[in-house]
Amino acid sequence: MTALSHPELGEARAAADEASRAGGLAVRELTGPVEHREAERLLALVWRMGQGSPPVSGDLMRALSHAGAYVAGAYLGRDMVGVTAGFLGGRPGSAIELHSHITGVLPRVQGRRVGFALKLHQRAWALERGIDTVVWTFDPLVRRNAYFNLAKLGARVASYLVDFYGEMPDGPNAGHGSDRLLVRWPLRAPHVAAAAAGRPVDVLDVGGAVLLDTDPDGRPRRRAPQAAETMLCAVPDDIDVLRRRAPGLARQWRHEVRAAFATALACGARVSGMTRSGWYVLAPAGASR
Q: Which of 120, 167, 217, 284 is spaced 20 to 30 Å from 194 by Cα?
């Protein structure tokens, strides 16, 4: 962990406060068992698991908080509308990182930038403790999360993890595998500070060789571009809707996106971002970001 200058810390706190104000929210750490039980109920609702089997229990969040890990909630008035929790980790010999394990926001407050406010609170919390990097995973098929993580926050893809959690029983994931992209968020990087101030890391629709496209009927269609080219990979507009309405097609997208990423990454390509129109951009090895 490295020392943080006062101007950098002030910038992180100011950005977090502004994000909360913009949504009419209050974001704070959750420290007591009553709050942790409320957070448990919220996560059970978001993951559609029922109150008897939340994705993270209140007991665990209580233990994480007491041990000095990160558990926070976003409030709209008196109502808790978002939760995020993480723990400290890192490889032997490497700097300590915050692993952001779960973040959930109630659907009724979509559009109030609750997730953005939670992540900027998390960034300030980590920097105050000398932690320079936050890592987490997300489903590569969830287009809105991909743009949020890569553009709105400035996180960078580290690897593609096949079936990372194994079979998952919750509402959004059951029966659809658990492939994940692992991202690293370099909290002190200039592009991350700019994103926190409201200037996303946008990747322009400048074209490239299409690796995976969408047929008119909504099915994935794989192409075979040259490895030296910038490659583009499509994902469905809304995989959650597709899983409910056409689960077989959703599973087909899972396998095709997995194959597309495997092809690109085997050639040494890296994910440089996602466009506003929903394309992953995979740049050839050696290309500047």
A: 284
Give me the pLDDT at residue 1, please. Answer: 47
* Residues 105 and 114 sit within 8 Å (Cβ to Cβ): yes
Calculate the CA dihedral of residues 71, 167, 107, 39 and round it to 10 degrees. -30
Most distant pair of Cα atoms in the chain: their distance: 56
DSSP label of 44: H
In whole angstroms, give the CA distance from residue 156 to residue 154.
Answer: 6
Q: pLDDT by residue (tens digit) across 150-190?
A: 999 999 999 999 999 998 765 566 666 899 999 999 999 99
- Best CA proximity match to 141, nearest among 83, 214, 198, 209: 214
The one-letter code for the residue type at 54 is P
* Residue 67 exposure: Cα atoms within 13 Å on the Cβ side: 12
**Are 55 and 102 spatial neighbours (Cβ–Cβ below 8 Å)?**
yes
Structure-token pair, residue 95: 């700097």
Instruction: Tell me which residue has tokens 């085997």.
Output: 266
